Structures are given as C-alpha cells and as structure tokens.
Amino acid sequence: MLAFRRAFATLLCMDSSDVEQQSQAAELEARMAALTSELEDMRILYESTLQHSAAIEDELQDQNTRMTAHLAMLKKYLSPQLYDAIMGGRTEVKLNYKRQKLTVFFSDIVDFTRATDMLEAEVLSELLNQYLDEMARIALDHGATIDKFIGDAVMIFFGDPEFISDRVHAERCVRMAVKMQERIRDLSDNWIAKGAEFGLRVRMGINTGYCTVGNFGCENRMDYTIIGGQVNIASRLESMAEAGTIAISGTTYSLVEHMVDAVPLGKLEVRGVFHPIPAFKLLGIREEGSTPTPSSLISFSPNGFSLSSIAYHPAATTEADRAAYIRALRQALARLEEG
Length: 339
Description:
alpha+beta; Alpha-Beta Plaits; 3 domains
C-alpha cells in the first residue's frame, strides 16, 4: 500500500493539463480511497477476529477444565477399571451381560448395629467413611473391581472388566483380604477412642466360580454388578466366618494353597446350591520362597487332603513344632472321620 501511495503521488506531480490524465488521476484517487477504507475494515475485522478467537479459546479452556472436574467427580461413582473401559471405548454402556469366572469377596463389620446405637450419627459416619476409604484403597491397589458398598458391607470381585487368570485373581483377592485385616487392626483403636465399646472387627468371605457379570437395570439407570449362585456362596462364607477372620471356599483354596496356611471349617450348606461347599479359615500367607511352616504341613482340597512327611526327633523338635505336628495330624484325622 505504501508503494501504491508513492506511485499515486508521482502521478499527481506530472503535468495535469491533459484532461484525460486528470480524469484517470481522479478515478485512481477514488479507487485508492476505497481500497484504503476496505483495508481499514479488514484490519478492524482481523483484530476483532483475534479477540474473538482468544475469547473462544478461553471459553473452551474453561469448558475443558469444568469437564475434567466433572469427570473426576463421576469417576468416584465407578470402579477405575470400568471407568477406563467406558472412556476408552472398550465397553458399551447398554444392558448386557456375560458369564465369567470371578473371585468374589464380601466383608461386613461385626456388631455394626450396636455401634449405631452407641455413637452419634456424625461420629459413626466419619468412622465408617474412614474405614471404607481404607478398604477401597487396598482393593484398588490389588486390582480389584469394587462392586458396591452396602452400608458397612463391601462387595468386590476380580476378573472383570479385565481378566488375567483364575489363579492370579484368587491370589490377589486373598492378599487383599489379609492386608485389609492388618489395616483394620490399626483402625480398631480409633473406634474405641471415639466412644465404641468394642474395637473394629470384620468378617470376610471369598469364593471363586462362574458368575453373570454386566449391566443390569433399565436404559436410564443401570448398575454394573454380578449375580449368581457363586456370589451367594461368597456372601454365605462371610456370614459364617468368625469375627476378624477370612473364610474361603474350597475352589478358591485350590488356587492359592501353594501360598497360604489354612484350616478346614467343614462343609457349608448354601440355599440354591445342591452340594455342600468345603470351607477353610485362612490363617495367613507364607513368605515367597520360604519353606512350609509346621502349620502348613497339611493341605486341604475339595477332594481330600495331602499331608507332608514328618520327621520327628524328640531332641531336635521344639515345643512349637511339636504342637504344630499334633494340630496337623488332628486335622487330618478329623477329615478322615468326616468321610
């Protein structure tokens, strides 16, 4: 535009006696004025567009920030595995289900109803949320899918939406349960300090078997959950477990017997299941690479038991080992008498 103006100024300095040149100069001047006006309009439009674009960019950034915050809040209502599967497009949000072998976990606070009578609602809510938060953290650390919290009860499963192997799921579930009981012992003192007459004690039950897993409900409201007889068995194991202990089914035990110490609890009758369910009380997890302890000399399975060889020499056997040998032999005898 500057070059154009210089050229125009040069034309004005030329001899303007020629009428035709004067007419062309006037026409050129008018055209230049029009172009200058158009250029100014374009400059204003450009600056306005920049400002508008910046405003749109700021608005989009605000929307993204709000959406991220809303998704973070929504994520709290779903298990991380399910959330990631939905957001990653790996699962459809519709009413569907499938049959899948899972390891199912139930837990329940012993005498929780009594605690509700002893403690103010605000105090009880604080203690319950602290407990559930700790249990959820441990569950997620072990790769569990948290199905739901039902008051003080917790329902968890392994094997969906991500399946690894039956053994890995059972091992993770058992390790999770043991870690939970360890943490519960730490939380127990806080319950007494807050006014409860007794410490925190929790029953737990674990079973492995085929369940129906998927989305249940209606198109406008659905739950991702599991149903079936094997779920009922896990719940029944939890309800029959002693306070502060973990009861596991024979199916689960057969998957983890290489890494745990357990004693039989007999056979469990479950409504809707046509055969008794062998049950075991989990005593603990052996350290990896360690030799079997005297308490693990006997290994039970749904079909019977196996007893390790015992080399007994009075002078070389401690009282603790001797007592462990006696317990193992008594357990074997009890199983033989059951037939």
